[in-house]
Design goal:
With 368 residues, the protein is mainly β. It folds into two domains: 97 residues, no CATH class; 249 residues, Jelly Rolls. It is built from five helices and 20 strands. Helix 1 packs across helix 5. The protein is globular. The relative contact order is 0.22.
Length: 368
């Protein structure tokens, strides 16, 4: 009886090793400058056109994000005004039909996550908005956001990776810099580092600050902005076109989190403003494909990835595709943090995957 049980277990293990779900060995990019392939183990996909992260009925960080609420004095904000980041200025404006990804949301205006900077100063502070991932285990990876930037002058819209003020990767739009009359639309690409701190957090005095003029107006439509954070460099993109590449000591050396923010402090050297009217920047999605710094996630990857060379074991990440989410693929590897489960239900955050459950899941996939 014992020998028979061993044969069944051995047979199950062999079967498990031969079974592959899509992407169970990761998600890949190829860098344009040197044609080098990178594979990332984990994902977080957030479809803000359909996902409401402001629903107070759900738990904290239910889908990996939370609106932020905190104040910064004018001294800390380094401007004539302070900043009041409030949850009221983070508005989910969803589309009920999950097959539709563009157009107005139920609250009017562009669907997506609306980040509002208020025009009314309260107690010397500008009302601002920020959302952040609740985990800080995002290490090397490729991070993408669909954003429509405000056209109201006097704010800073930012998509960034952050650990602290000397470990930070920024994509920042200053709406006061936009000039529609001559089609000038700059974006500021920044590595905040120890060197920038030594210059009073003025990264423009370092080699890790570049202003690039976009070939489109970022205020009229959604565009994809992307950060590739690699071990030796950081690459910045707009709509899958490489904007610049930064190397050296400014490249972060720790894991961190992801944030999207919209703010003003009246600093004439940066955000300017505050805006004369309420200003809204809208986010349609954030997609993160990354290597986790958590040992539990690394162990999970080791367990599920049996043959990286097998077909579909590693999935190429599509460029600039606002409607494609790996979480919607029926045969996707389980236990990732996605907007959807494989059967279409919205996912909760990942859980450690028991060994027996892994075998059962793989058996079910093969049986399809």
């Amino acid at each position: 009886m014992a020998m028979a049980s061993f044969r069944i277990l051995a047979s199950s293990l062999l079967f498990f090793n031969l079974v592959l779900a899509d992407c169970e060995c990761g998600y890949s990019i190829i860098t344009p400058s040197d044609d080098k392939r990178y594979v990332f183990t984990d994902i977080l996909e957030s479809d803000f056109v359909h996902l409401d992260i402001t629903d107070k009925a759900q738990g904290y960080g239910e889908y990996g994000w939370t609106p932020q609420e905190f104040d910064m004095s004018s001294e800390v904000a380094r401007g004539p005004y302070g900043q009041a980041f409030t949850t009221q200025n983070v508005i989910s404006n969803n589309i009920a039909d999950e097959q539709i990804f563009g157009g107005p949301g139920v609250k009017g205006g562009d669907a997506g996550l609306k980040l509002v900077v208020g025009s009314e100063i309260k107690n010397g502070m500008v009302p601002c908005a920020d959302v952040s991932t609740t985990d800080v285990h995002y290490f090397h990876g490729t991070f993408r956001a669909g954003i429509k930037v405000t056209d109201v002058p006097g704010t800073c819209s930012a998509f960034f990776w952050y650990m602290n003020d000397t470990q930070e990767i920024d994509i920042e739009f200053l709406s006061a810099e936009f000039n529609k009359s001559n089609n000038t639309f700059p974006v500021n690409l920044v590595l905040q580092s120890q060197e920038s701190k030594d210059h009073g957090f003025d990264a423009s005095k370092t080699g890790d600050f570049k202003t690039i003029h976009l070939p489109f107006d970022p205020t009229t439509d959604f565009h994809e902005y992307r950060i590739d954070f690699l071990p030796d460099r950081v690459l910045f993109y707009a709509d899958a076109q490489l904007l610049t590449e930064m190397k050296g000591a400014g490249v972060p050396s720790t894991p961190g989190n992801l944030q999207v923010s919209h703010w003003s402090n009246g600093n004439v050297g940066w955000s300017q403003g505050p805006p004369k009217a309420d200003a809204t920047t809208t986010v349609s999605y954030v997609k993160a494909y990354f290597n986790s710094s958590l040992k539990s996630r690394q162990d999970d990857y080791t367990m599920r990835c049996k043959d990286p060379s097998a077909p579909r074991a590693v999935c190429a990440i599509p460029d600039r595709n606002a409607t494609y989410f790996f979480g919607n693929v029926a045969n996707m590897t389980p236990n990732q943090t996605t907007y959807h489960e494989n059967n279409g239900r919205r996912a909760r955050r990942w859980r450690p995957l028991p060994f027996a459950a892994a075998i059962a899941t793989s058996t079910w996939v093969v049986g399809l």
